[in-house]
Amino acid sequence: MRCAPPPAAAAWWPAHVREGPSATRPGYCGSESEFAPRARAIAAGRSGSPNMWLFWRTRNRFSLEELRYLTDQLQKVHVVNEANKEFVIEALRSIAELMIYGDQHDALFFEYFMEKQIMGEFARVLRISKLSRVSLQLLQTMSIMIQNLRNEHSIYYIFSNEHINFLVTYPFDFRIDEMLSYYISFLRAISGKLNKNTISLLVKTKNDEVTSFPLYVEALKFAFHEDSMIRVAIRTLTLNVYHVGDESVNRFVSRTPLSDYFSDMVQHFQKQCIDLDKLVARSSRKGNSSVPISSIEDAIVQIEDTLYYFSDVMSSGIPDLERFITENILRVLVFRFLLPSLQRQSTDLDLSVTTSMYLLCCILHIFKNKDMASTVAAALFHQPDGPDDRKQRTPNGYTSEHDSCKSENHCTTASGIEQSSEEPNSLSSVSWKHLPNNSSRSDCCQGNTPREHLLSYITEGDDSQALGSLCLFATLLQTKELDESMLDALGILPQRKQHKKLLLQALVGEDLAETQLFSSSSSLTDDSICSDFDIYVRKLQDKYGLQCHHPRQMTSKAHRYQVIC
């Protein structure tokens, strides 16, 4: 007589066999009432008794039991090879999922994580493995955990005991592109969790001074990587470090050799400017369609991104970095290349006039920094040195390498006045006097300052030069960081603001203001008044060695006449 299979197998019988009447089941040696309850119990995953059929049950994927099992199995691995690499990879991935689940649902998960020192197990697995796939999974596991863990105590534990610094300084094989991407994501994830408490776990100190900060140091090694996404990630990381506001860390990143990073950044920005100028020059040639507009647009985006990064660093609250960036931008770029380009002087860069105008507009528009804006505005009155002076002058380490201007371009002014190239263009060589009310345009448009050249481009330059010059004056006018004395010196202070200021001064009893209000010359400046313009002109001379034509010798009315005529 044939009998039915054991109850365990009955759960997998076809439905018509499992649920039909007993008369239709050939070989069944028992009543339906005896078997049906058992079959239904097994089909539902339960056992008729507590100890039977346990080998059919699986562990809950998101359970502490599963975490124990994975940890125990991982601890039994003494070498990672081709035979067990799949298990190791899956274990690392699953542990990350379990820790995130436990962080949101059950604190016992992280207690077990700390008890078994699983961070140490991760470091051990990395040491005993030479397989890139295992390293990739470990970096991904750490990134996922750091990004998604919400409990501060969990982050404190992960950042402690030097495990993070070990992973940060581990010599991964970055010849594998995917490895570098995962590593950079790992670094950025760490920086996203930085605050005054966690950052102290990642630095080494001596006498309250930071002596080592592996996260920052290792990140800077990739600051100029060819991949733009990696460069952006490193900039994000550095900003996260600066915004923590830890004084000892701020001093550490402001000291050499780490401060050289910003010198290199300015050099990198200078190269971006050169590349843009070359693209524009190539595209402007007649019949040359080899440069797509998208290439120029991409170059512009990169330049503006770099300037916004500089601006973010300057506003991060670290005075040393703010001064360092300002000094480098002014010395390396503005004084050495941009202003000489406006004056058509030869430099080793030879940027075009329109590119220089665009870059100055960007600097004034993006940098919300009074010192930077005021210095650039005052430098528009810089009077170039004569050839002999340029060879001898080396103020504060700044060496001007400008060549002599060509005679036909040496002193282009709004009036078209030509000056002999043999006559030195020093401050003493130009005599400036107050202009009478009926002064003509030719009376006030003398000199070789960048401001005079900007005015000449409006009347005598081509369309791009005229538009660029107007845009630069408009940007100066809209720069909120500039004092009204700067705008008045440039001749672009709106007349209603000038009249309002003089009226206010007259109402409070300032005799000088009352005299100026009803005076035909309407000059805002006087030797007894020390305005922002005076301060920055003196700063240009004392700090940077740049001689400036002081517009006090001209009236503000004459300056406005230059602009509107």
UniProtKB/TrEMBL annotation:
Biased composition (Polar residues): 436-446
Name this protein carries in UniProt: Uncharacterized protein
Alphabetical list of InterPro entries matching this protein: CLEC16A/TT9, CLEC16A/TT9_N
Basic and acidic residues bias locations: 400-409
Domain of life: Eukaryota
Amino acid composition bias (Low complexity), ranges on this chain: 418-431
Organism: Zea mays (Maize)
Residue numbers spanned by region Disordered: 382-446
